[in-house]
Amino acid sequence: MPTTRPTKKAVAPASTAKARPAATKKTIASEPKSRKRTVQEAQRDSDDDEFGDVAIDMASDDEDMDGDVEDDDEDDEVDAFPEEEGQDMSAADLEDDNDEEEDSEGSYMDGDSIVDSQEENEGDEAEEDDIESDFGDLEDDIDPNFGHNLNEPRPVESDYNPIKREYPEIDPEYDSDSSTEENENTVGNIPMHWYDDYPHIGYDIHGKKVMKPATGDELDKFLSTMDDPDSWLSAHNFKEGQDVKLTAEELEIIRRLEGNRIPDADYNPYEDQVEFFTSKTEIMPLSAAPEPKRRFIPSKHEAKRIMKIVRAIREGRIVPRKSGHVPPKPKYYNLWNDAEDKPREEHVMHITAPKMKLPTHDESYNPPAEYLPTEEEIKEWNDMDKEDRPKNYLPQKYNALRNVPGYGQFIQERFERCLDLYLAPRVRKNRLNIDPESLIPKLPSPRDLQPFPTRLAVEYLGHEGRVRSVSVDPSGLWLASGSDDKTVRVWEVATGRCMKTYHLDELVTSVVWGPSKEVAVLAVTCGYKVGLILPEKIFSPELTLHSEEYLKAGFANSATSEVNPKATWKQPTPAEFEQGIRVWVHLQKPVKQVTWHRKGDYFATVAPDANNSAVLIHQLTKHQTQQPFKKTKGAVQRVMFHPTKPMFFVATQRYVRQYNLQRQELVKTMMTGVKWISSLDVHPAGDNLIIGSYDKRLCWFDLDLSSKPYKTLRYHQQAIRSVAYHKRYPLFASCADDGNVQIFHGMVYNDLLQNPLIVPVKILKNVHERIDALGALCVEWHPTQPWLISSGADHTIKLFS
User: Fold this and answer.
1) CATH architecture, domain defined by 456-463+633-801
2) CATH 2.130.10.10-classified regions of the chain
3) Where are the WD repeats (predicted)?
4) Is the pLDDT at 602 greater than 50, yes or no?
């Protein structure tokens, strides 16, 4: 078992163990070198001395860290214990050493560096010996065991200059020096003001409370500052709750920062540049430089040829070309061009001649078997004309190329190609690569344009003839219809129940409710008459009484007013009065249409056969009739009042004219482009209108845009009979003789720069059966709901919701 030399540990009482490292260090540093040499000589003389009951812990942390302590080399320098160095040391000397160790305990264990503790110890000794000491005395007192002098460069360790390290004493009675340290605050990086109201400042590693150190008031701080001349070197640690004295290294860092220098003194910002890619050209054995001329070896063969040419020139057999040599003129000339032939610049539209197609496999003298035609294909090719043949040859197979005969059509094909090149004109056409789908306007989905009617909700049955006209009252509760069975029926919209039936003498061509909710009146046209009906037992008694007085007031005023021979106002018979008819207006020709003014006092009638008096405007309160036009242009088909302005629209067979009733002048004439107008309706805003025609077209006009149609829609297969706008929703509809009803979304924007949006959203197919080439005859929108009501030649009325 190898012997282990004891380490440098001194036996000391337990009371002084806390300050042992600093005191031992100081003692070692202050002893003269002669004592150290004496101890080494004594140790050489007595290597087998025993140390008594000294307990040495071989597993201490300091010994594990420093492997040099257990070195078996006997030549290493070892500091002896105080007991061995001098046997004449008394107990008083040991007590003095212990006192010095206790004095240096505070500053060293409080977190100061060893250098600072040495400065303080040296300062105390200097005060006792009256020797001045300044900051520069640190050069001689720094312990070589723990660092080097800051003002001198650190020596470099090598094989020729070994550095001998000396380590501090370790107390054998303790497991490690860490046992002498105070409890540290391990609360972590948290705001320390959380502990302001508690007596402790944190917790140690075992979870026990670390009590706050005693702190004085401001006066105590001032007195301690005055007593301690080195107080300016300290800083307060809020985590530990005490002042910490700065080391020399930390003070040096502060000085360098204040001087705007780099904190690290060992860092050199002006080091030499390291060239990763050197600028020196390396000498390589290979080179890509061109060969020098000195390595050229002339060819003897070329030398003979050159000498032969030189002898021919000398003999005159070869005449060198002179500088002013002119090439001889050609022997052939262009007979058709007097001017000199010069290259002509290509025209902008010039197109080069197309190249002939390359031969394919079937043109080979030995084509594959799949290219050879069958007998049927050969017969079919022979029967075809030359112009219709896809190819002017038939593939044939030969065993060898020498067996292929001459091609008889060679001259003919080349001649035809020359004709194509010189006689056929070639024109450059710029092709536009346009996606056809991009030309289709992007329309929104019909699901995003709801609500609109999609299904049948109510069906009204009871008429025995064609239902030519329907109308809904302003409240939306009652529906009136006129039929060829000479009856006018009033229906309940929600249930489809017939509330009242009026029997007349002629076919009913038009029924329209009055626009005012204060007067319940229904205008009906039958033959040469226009009747005003007051439905009884339907409306409230107050509304019925007010409407009765409103209709009777006109007869009192008609006695004083002038009588127009074109129209006669008459009272009904007692039997007609019992039915509900209150006023009759007799005209000279059959009436086809009646329409109301927005205020409910005026209504207009259309009698197409009356020529100049085809359009008449009647005033209900005064029983007066006016003829707005002395002469009409064409046969009038439909008329409409503007919903907000004093405008009047008159539709003839091919034109729609807009008149100003106040100024009595023509405002605009719309060019429809259709053959025969059948129906007309004006948008509730008054800036757009639609017309339907017997030639299956529906035209949308933007009155502010142009006199021509903004959109022309042709979705029906037969003649359009009626068109109608909804008064609240952006919807309009049309019906035709094909029995279908087309529903469109027509959004009109307030922005004049944005065009109306027209989208077809629904087709109600086979709504009415076709009877005698007639289908759906009239459509009408509910005034408040997105419901559509249609009537047809099959004697039915249907409501779609």
Assistant:
1) 7 Propeller (2.130)
2) 456-463+633-801
3) 460-501
4) yes
